[in-house]
Specification:
Layout (H helix, E strand, L loop, with lengths): L1 H86 L7 H56 L1
Length: 151
């Protein structure tokens, strides 16, 4: 009977160890599932930010193209102004011509300032999105490392 008692208590110890191992296994599986969910969330956020970054880059390109067109318009207007000044026999342009030139210059300056602000804003947004993507990639790498060390 002494042998049976020892075997019985050894069996209880084995059951307890097995139960503990199963609990640990369940906890590790749960941790793995949570980490995989976080990785999937990070990937979807990264993809969303990538799309937004592409959109901002497209807007920036359009704005740059518009700026180039406006600069070209300014050069043409300045050439017209030089031609008017050169073609005049008296020295001062007519008040209506000068008013038109000043209005064109003010309009161009306003547009240029607005587009510069827009370009600045778009660049800042692109930078923010790129930093966020870098952060998400680092978090993803960290979670992948945790997964490897847990598994």
């Amino acid at each position: 009977e002494g042998g049976r008692g020892a075997a019985g208590s050894g069996g209880d110890f084995g059951e307890a160890a097995r139960s503990t191992m199963e609990d640990e296994l369940r906890a590790l599986r749960e941790n793995l599932r949570v980490a995989e969910d976080k990785v999937l969330d990070c990937q979807s956020v990264r993809d969303m930010f990538a799309k937004e970054t592409d959109m901002y880059r497209s807007e920036l390109k359009i704005t740059r193209d518009e700026r180039a067109r406006l600069e070209e318009d300014l050069q043409k207007a300045q050439e017209k102004l030089r031609d008017l000044k050169a073609g005049q026999s008296s020295g001062d342009p007519g008040s209506s011509q000068q008013g038109v030139i000043q209005a064109m210059q003010k309009d161009f300056d306003a547009r240029m300032e607005r587009y510069q602000d827009e370009v600045k804003y778009l660049r800042q947004k692109c930078d923010e999105k790129e930093k966020r993507c870098e952060h998400l990639l680092a978090e993803r790498a960290s979670l992948a490392g945790e997964l490897r060390s847990a598994g």
